[in-house]
Structure formats: C-alpha cells, structure tokens
Amino acid sequence: MILGRLLQKLVTPFRALYRVVTIEGLRWAYARAKANGVLGYVPEPKSLLYVPASCLPYHISGYTTRTHAVLSSLQKAGVRLHVLTRPGYPWDRADRLQTPLEDSAERDGIVYSHAHTPSHHRPLLMYALQAVEPIMAAAKQHRVTAIQAASNHVNALPALLAARRLGIPFFYEMRGLWELSRVSRMPDFEGSEAYKQGLALEGFIARSADRLYVISDELGRYAVENWGVDPDRMALLPNCVDPEHFVSADSRVVEPNTIGYAGSLLDYEGLDVLIRALAQLKAEGIVLNLRIVGDGEVRGALEALTRTQRLTSQVHFFGRLAPEVAREVILRSTVVCLPRKPFEVCQIVTPIKLVEALAMGKPVIVPDLPVFQDELRTESSEVPGWFFKAGDAADLAGVLKTAFTDAAVLAEKSVLARAHAVKMRNWQRYVRDIYDQLPS
Fold it and tell me: CB under 8 Å to 380, separation ≥6 — which residues?
C-alpha cells in the first residue's frame, strides 16, 4: 500500500507533463493544419464523410445502433454519404465480435470502410497525427464537402485535423463524455490527469467544430457552461427512431406484470435498485417479473442479489442477444424500466433504448433526472410513463405499484409513448439540420 502511494507520487508529475504536451501538441497541429491547407480541392455538393469510432457487426451496443440509424437517416435525407470508421478499427479492439475479411462491408445499403492503420495503441498525439492521412485520403477520394465525427475525442481529433487541412467544415457529434462514464465505475478516476486531458480535448473539439451536435439539451448546457461553446453553432441530435423500423406491440403478445430491460449491465444503470424494489413489492404480495437482456461487469453481482432476495423465479437474465431477438423480449413486456442512478453521466445522456421502447408503444419508468424529463416532455401535460426518485428503491416500488394498478392507464400511456416517439424523436426531424449545413 505504501509502495503504491509512493509510485503514484512519482508518476503523477510525468502524467501531468504528458497531458500538457498532448494538448499543446494538438493545438499546434490544429493551427498548422489551418495554415497549410490543400490547394485545389474541389468537393462535391452535399457529400459527407462520416467517421464513427465503432460499428456493427464488430460491436453491438447503443453506440453502434445509433451510428447505423444516423447513417441510414442521412442517406434517406439525400446526403451523399461515405463512411470510414476510426483508423485502426476494428483490428485494434481485442473485444471485437469478429474480424473483417475485407476493408469494407455493406449493411442495409450503408458501406462501412476501414483503414488497418494506425492502431490507437500509441500516444494520443502520435495517433491523431498519423490517423489524419487515411481520413484525408478517403475525403479526397470521394471529394466530400464536410467531415462529421462521432464521440469521442480519440476518434474526432484526426477527423478535425483532416477537415482543416482540406479547408472544409467539420461537424462533431457529441454523444456523451466517456470520462464521466468512467467515474461512475471508478470514482478515483475523477481529477486524474487522464480525466483532465479527456475533458480538455472534448472541449477543444467542441469549440473548434463548425457545428456541434449534442445528444441532449443537458449536454449542450454542459458544453456552454464548461467550455464556452457558442450556442448558435450547436444543435440537438438526440437518440431517435425511424418509425418504419419499429412497430407498436400487439396487445395479444404482451405478457401481463412484466418489466423489460435491454442494455449494458453496469452499476450506473441501477438494476440493483430495481431488483430491491421488486423484493419490497413481493413482501407486499405483489409479484412482477423482470426480463433482463444484456451483459456487463455487474451481472454476477445482480444475479447474486436476485438469489439473496429470493427472486430467481421472477428475475430472468437472458444474456447478450441479437438486436432483433432483444427487441422481441421488449415487445412482450408490459413496461420498460431504465432505473439509472444519479451519477453525473446519467444526468446528461439518456440511452437509445429509451426512445426505442417508446416507439414500440412501451410506457417507461425512469428516474426523475432533468435529462429524462426533457426526453419525455410532450406537447400536452401527459407523460408516456412515470418518474421515480433516482436511486430510491422504495420510491420505485411505489411507482411500479401505481403503474400496474390500472390496465386502462397502461393502454393510454402505450398509445402516447408511440405517438411521442414518432413525432418528437423521429430521425428526419433532426438530421435535416446536417443536410442544410452541408455546402451546396
């Protein structure tokens, strides 16, 4: 223990120096890219190079689901779309589900291209400078008129530098802040040199982008208050759905007294709070069934909690399922509960599974955090679900009891949920801004 603290004291100054060198080096590279642009580059109107950090089928997550949905919607909106995943991906990810056989693959009409090098397993400054080249090559090959990169800064930095060298607009799609997510799992990470560097670079990209797209109003407020981003250069690009790809559940297949959840099994998702709430209801003689689809670092702890609370006949863990199979589990559930805890990351980002549940006509039970209230705000005073006090199992138990008391109210909220998703969280409502921002 003493040796560990001593090593920490010795290493900290070097980490601080690394942070300064990285940030200042990237600022220098940015200024140089602007000053030494490519001459004679003539782009094609309304064409976009989109750079995501990961994609299907190599990773199945909310991030990759959103990526494919955004791309499909941009193509549908008339954008001349070209995709290059982060250089080095997916070969430099040990957790990839499969290895690509070729340098490009087509999925639902979207062609994802990949560049083998550079691997991101190197200092960030080195990676950013080296990864500019394959991005520039793809941009020049397709003569795009703008480059858009999605979170996080590791993915976005080389795309930003490439856009500046080509003299074309750069859009940043900020889907969250990885540093805040990590703090929810590793509290000691907050205030570390890596934490400071990550947030500083996110702010640098946000301020440098010609257009900043934020996943929520709360994240937009964070960018304005912490980094001084000009609100006039910012637009909302929340999690949405294409209504044609989601159907409202047939009431005949919905199983009564069931709660659905599909997503990562992480501490901040709050599933332990939900399990404790079910235990309280069982003590009152109210039996509800919970279906959990997904996997993650707290699955073992959740299964152990289920056993100690004597809920093994009510709580079912399905593990990781294909997206279409997971959707079927949700369709058969009466409601969907997303019991996120009040960590900072949960206060600025909502999961895409929220709007997908709404699109399937599922009333939702969510914490009373402002970001969830923003997401469920309707033109009327009605809400397509219920709120509970974040992190409070007793309050959640009371809300669940209320939700399952009246079948007629459940039916009304089901209709409201679908209508809200179709009208207020339709991709075409938001990607139009990206199309309009592309030079003609």
Answer: none
- Contact at 8 Å (CB) between 227 and 329? no
Phi, psi (degrees; rounded to nearest 5) at 386: -140, 150
Residue type, position 169, single letter: P
- pTM value is 0.92
38-240+428-437 is a CATH 3.40.1000.20 domain: no
Per residue in 277-335, pLDDT tens? 999 999 999 999 999 999 999 999 999 999 999 999 999 999 999 888 999 999 999 99
Apex 335 CA angle, 331 and 341, nearest 5: 120
Cβ-based neighbours of 406, under 8 Å, separated by 6 or more: none
Phi, psi (degrees; rounded to nearest 5) at 48: -135, 135
In the numeric block, which tokens belong to residue 307? 């056993």
In the chain, which segments carry CATH 3.40.50.2000? 38-240+428-437, 243-424
For residue range 19-40, what is the model confidence (pLDDT) as tens digits? Answer: 888 999 989 999 998 888 787 8
For the domain covering 243-424, report its CATH number.
Answer: 3.40.50.2000
Length in residues, the chain = 440
In single-letter form, the type of residue at position 33 comes to A
**Residue 95 C-beta-side C-alpha neighbours within 13 Å:** 6
